[in-house]
Amino acid sequence: MVAIVEQALSDREPNNLRSRAYDSFTRHLLARDLRAGQFISQRELVELTQLPLGAIRELIPRLEAEGLVRTVPNRGMQIPHVDVGLIREAFQLRLFLEREAVASFTLHASDEAIATLQREHDAIIARCEAAAASAAGITEEEVALAQDVDWSLHSTIIEALDNSIITDIYRVNAIKIRLIKQEQTRLNTRVLLPTMREHLAVIAAIRSRDPARAAEAMGAHVSSARDRALEMR
């Protein structure tokens, strides 16, 4: 399984240049070719995306509406700064969406879907604990694998709602969360195992089929991620 942002990008067959421009912009943003606070012109976006200027001009209103860029007179477009306001707003939206989503998932997910989440987490935790105890320590490969498991849990829970409006809102917010994480709290060797153990608490609550307990566990997990981001400011 992959994160909801990558899934949206890989599943869509862009049927026009504007869609292709949006997908290209998002990929470059997530690949860190574009950084928080960076200014970029329309011409630079043409070079980056290899798409015509007309497509870029059509793209800009969507990016502005989604809060992925802001236009500054005489300076061009700016990628959002990662500041306290962005962190609080993005994580508040996560709390609202994911607490309700996990409550629904707890009631309706199949036993196999839950068991799959448990197996994935047990496997990555065992691998990272073994690596942490070795001379080499946890490697970048293991961090990347753990990050995939991290995003997969949240994507699975949101996608289970089968609600395209919520999925689109979550997708845009997930891009902002990724931008925050790149600058502040991207999963690393220090927070990897504590984060995975927070996930285990969420999965245990889901397995109990108690939606209130699951919502509380998810709330604690998202709040912990928010607090880490705020501490780095």
From TrEMBL:
Pfam families: FCD
Keyword DNA-binding appears in the UniProt entry: yes
Keywords: DNA-binding, Transcription, Transcription regulation
Keyword flag Cell division: no
SUPFAM superfamilies per record: GntR ligand-binding domain-like, Winged helix' DNA-binding domain
Residue ranges constituting the GntR C-terminal domain according to the UniProt record: 89-224
SMART domains on file: FCD
Signal peptide coordinates: none
Protein name: GntR family transcriptional regulator
Annotated organism of origin: Roseomonas elaeocarpi
Lineage: Bacteria, Pseudomonadati, Pseudomonadota, Alphaproteobacteria, Acetobacterales
